[in-house]
Specification:
Blueprint: E1 5-14, E2 18-27, E3 32-36, H1 43-50, E4 58-63, E5 66-67, H2 73-77, E6 80-83, H3 94-104, H4 111-121, H5 137-150, E7 155-159, H6 167-184, E8 187-191, H7 195-201, E9 204-209, E10 212-217, H8 231-235
Parallel strand pairs: 3-8, 3-9, 6-7, 7-8
Antiparallel strand pairs: 1-2, 1-4, 4-5, 9-10
This protein binds adenosine-5'-diphosphate and magnesium ion (MG).
Adenosine-5'-diphosphate binds near residues 14, 18, 37 and 39.
Length: about 240
Amino acid sequence: MTSVLAVKNIVVKRGRRFRLQVDEFAVEPGEVVALIGPNGAGKSTLLTVLACLSLPDKGELFFLREKVSKGNALAVRRQLAVVFQEPLLLDSSVLENAALGLKLRGQKTGAKDRAYTWLQRFGVEHLATQNALTLSGGEAQRVSLARAFALEPKVLLLDEPFASIDVISRSTLIKEFKSVLSSTKTTAILVTHDFQEVLALASRVVILDQGRIRAQGTPRGIAAHEIWGGLAGAQIPPMPGS
Ligand SMILES: Nc1ncnc2c1ncn2[C@@H]1O[C@H](COP(=O)(O)OP(=O)(O)O)[C@@H](O)[C@H]1O
Ligand SMILES: [Mg+2]
């Protein structure tokens, strides 16, 4: 199978001390990969490289077998979408914000219709004419997700997208997000700290620590990993019949 995104022998330096070093990492079509690890492990750094927002200092990044370089990075980036922890919304209507990604990519006709459909899908179409800066955290993140899905990205990259949403809104949004991911079969890479999020969403988990991939596996497979401090394992419901 052709990977959608892959890195080979990359080194990424940040500041004077930090060095991310990943020899091999690939994402296959339809996978939802969770990137987990302690603060400062390099999760956001790796996500930034995978999102083509910064090129590695050494090594290679591939998008559908094509090597990403300065020359084609913008074209590749236009096939990806990124959602950050803090929704990046502008001082205009919710609908304008949801359509912004499409407009920036030159798709003017139908952008608002498509954006509106995605606002509906995330249950915030009633806010379409409201100024985006007046939204609650949860509403704002729904608009960011609508904007990202409206782009129909080949890969959706998310950096702790639910981390600043209150617990109750979060669990509802995670369920809706999961249903959208599976109905659209979107390939996704999700940075998270939350084990319930991993369990609900991920098909594969990659553990990063000090700039290196330390372990990989299924959510249940890595449940007992020391990274969860023995806590998450205890919260896992048993497999049926076990
Ligand atoms: N622009 C920067 N300048 C200096 N150090 C940085 C910069 N960006 C990240 N770092 C450092 O690189 C390390 C990895 O950061 P990051 O990828 O953001 O970690 P994570 O997302 O896993 O918390 C951290 O030690 C961080 O302080
Ligand atoms: Mg981070």
